[in-house]
Amino acid sequence: MASSNLNRDIGTEDLKIEELVKLLREDKYLVPTFQREFVWEPENILKLWDSILRFYPVGSILYWETDTFLQTHRKLGGFIFPHDEDTVRRFKEWKYILDGQQRATSLLVCMMGGKGRVADNDNFDYTLYFDATTAKFFFAGELDRLKKNVRGEFLIRVRDVPNWSFTFYKDIAAVDGFNPTIEHNLQQISRMFTDYKLSVIRIKGVEVGEVCEIFERINQEGKKLDPIDIIVARTYRREDPAKGQHGFYLRDDLKALKEVLVSKGNQFQYLDDLTIVQMFALCLRKTHTTGRNPFGITPAALDNLTADHFQQHWAECKKTILETIKFLCDLKIQGPAMLPFAYLALPLCQYFHCNSKPNRGMARQWFWRNAFGLEDFRSSTDVYSFCDNFFGPLEQGKDVTIPRLELSRARLVGAKYNHRNSLSRAVLAFLANQGPIDFSDPSADVLDNVYLLLSQAPNLHHIYPQNFLGQISGLPADASIDSLMNICFLRARTNIQISDKNPLVYFKAFQSVKNFESILKSHLIPRDYIEKAGFTPADYRDFLLARAQLFAEKLRYWLPNVEVSLVD
Question: Using CA atoms, how far apart are residues 393 and 93, in angstroms rounded to an integer?
Fold first, then answer.
């Protein structure tokens, strides 16, 4: 590392606005794809120009000069760069903007008049104007409105300012309404183009991986660079027939995998790319048998992945990833938002890779036990430990032990739904796994978007309706209306039919439905509490505890090789 430091170079230069825009227009400065698209809102752009007009500092622009080609954005804002990728590839060196992309693009599109998307407007005109009467910037869409109150001569198109002729001031001074304030504002915007300098910093002599670290350290938008963006940039490889080298762009493979997942009808098309790459890395980790294993899920280990690794192993690993996802879907885990812990998928993926006879029963028990365990399963150490100490021996036919699971009735009853909470997701996933049947129509699908699109406030059915309980005084303090043990899955139509009715009332209306006993069992609803003669506040807490008991018994049934105990 020390020797490479000797080759590094850093330098600065000051550029006028026009000079920077010209370099961008001519592809002298490029934006790598690990940078975000142009996302600044119009008000941010106006503030930038106002700061420049006032000669406030707006921050520097940092670029990396290198002979390494990276995939770059061919369109920023509404402006399409003049050279196609094949032309850009033939450059001898490239300059990639690492910091200041949003500022640089804002200057470019305003001077060029590019059109792009803003909110619901796909054709927003970024052409910038200046109101010389107020010293305010505005966009082309405001021009007609402002002309009703301001003479058109005083509404200046900003890109025309650098080209003002010697007679400009003489001509505009003759316009009716011209005054010293307007004169001052025009002189200031002219001075902005002649005297304001943007600081541009160049770094040279560093490698791709280190550039990404630099990006993370200096990124001023507060957005951390996604590790997958680093991997995509680092593993990108252009096609070179002369060297027999095939091109590679990881995003294409990730996109193709997501398209397969979309066709499956679940929500795993929203699985984040980093998790997919981690699953890929664990497949390689399993098959690496000599020397130190370089593969893993940490950022340092992911840095060891190369384009060759992806090109040689993607097809077989893709099959394993899809097999793992199918296994989860069979458990009614229909998308990443339903996983109690995202890392639960990783040891399973390594176990299924190149395993013709996986013990799916033990894998299911392992999943549910750890979904409900009190341990916080979020570290790479946990993943490697399960891979090496549980699934490794299991695949070799050795006896393995799944640790005891202790369930707390009070924890189940006291927990409220929170889409970020692992227990919430575990409970709802297990309830979905029971194949819940609709109260009024046993043939209807109840695991619709209410479950598939679990969010901050999903339309989950409360067995004891919220408004019904809200009218009851004296409910026990430890019996929340929103307890997970008061939640079940129903189709929206049945939910509306129930409305705010007392369960002792609305369940009577459904008892004539065929196989009503099976319907209750599919929701783990204790029958005793829907057949009472009347309702008392204490009944609600007793119902929650009784349902928690049924829940634990069903979980014990699903985990025959696990000691499951229920405590208060």
Answer: 52
Assess contact for 513 and 444: CB atoms under 8 A.
no
Bridge partners of 240, per DSSP, are 245
pTM for the whole thing? 0.68
Q: DSSP letter string over 94-115? A: EEEEEE-HHHHHHHHHHHHT-E
How many CB atoms are closer than 10 A to CB 338? 23
What are the phi and psi torsion angles at 42 (to 5°)?
Answer: -55, -40
Evaluate whether 49 touches 131 at the Cβ level (below 8 Å).
no
Q: What is the pLDDT of residues 520-530, one digit of tens each?
A: 999 999 988 88
On whether the CB atoms of residues 195 and 188 are closer than 8 A, the answer is: no
CA dist., res. 213 & res. 209, Å (int) = 7
Both tokens of residue 271?
């699985």
* Cα–Cα dist 539/476, whole Å: 10
**Could you report the per-residue pLDDT of 425-468, keeping only the tens digit for each?**
999 999 999 999 989 888 887 886 656 666 555 667 899 999 99
- E strand or H helix at 123, and its extent? strand 121-125
Helix axes 422-433, 360-372, angle to 10 degrees: 140
Share in percent of the chain as helix, strand, coil (round to 5): 50, 10, 40
- Contact present, 375 and 344 (Cβ < 8 Å): no
DSSP state of 263: H
d(Cα 349, Cα 281) in Å, to the nearest integer?
10
Q: Which of 519, 332, 327 is nearest to 429 (CA)?
A: 332
Contact 373, 532 (CB under 8 A): no
Which segments within 135-206 are labelled E, that is strand?
A: 136-139, 155-157, 198-204
Q: Max CA-CA distance within the chain? A: 96
Distance from CA of residue 363 to its chain's centroid?
28
Residues sharing a CB contact under 8 Å with residue 326, sequence separation 6 or more, in sequence order: none
Token pair of 24, please?
Answer: 């961008």
pLDDT tens digits for range 89-144 = 678 788 888 888 889 988 988 998 766 666 566 678 889 999 999 999 999 999 99
Question: What is the overall mean pLDDT for the chain?
Answer: 87
The alpha carbon of residue 518 and the mean position of all alpha carbons in its chain are separated, in whole angstroms, by 39
Residue 526 to residue 536: CA distance in whole angstroms: 16
Rg of the chain on CA atoms, in Å:
31
Three-state SS string over 15-42 comes to: ECHHHHHHHHHCCCCECECCCCCCCCCH
Residue 388 DSSP symbol: I
Can you say whether the dihedral through the CA atoms of 410, 414, 418, 419 is positive or negative? positive
Burial class (CB in 10 A: 0-12, 13-18, 19+), 79: buried
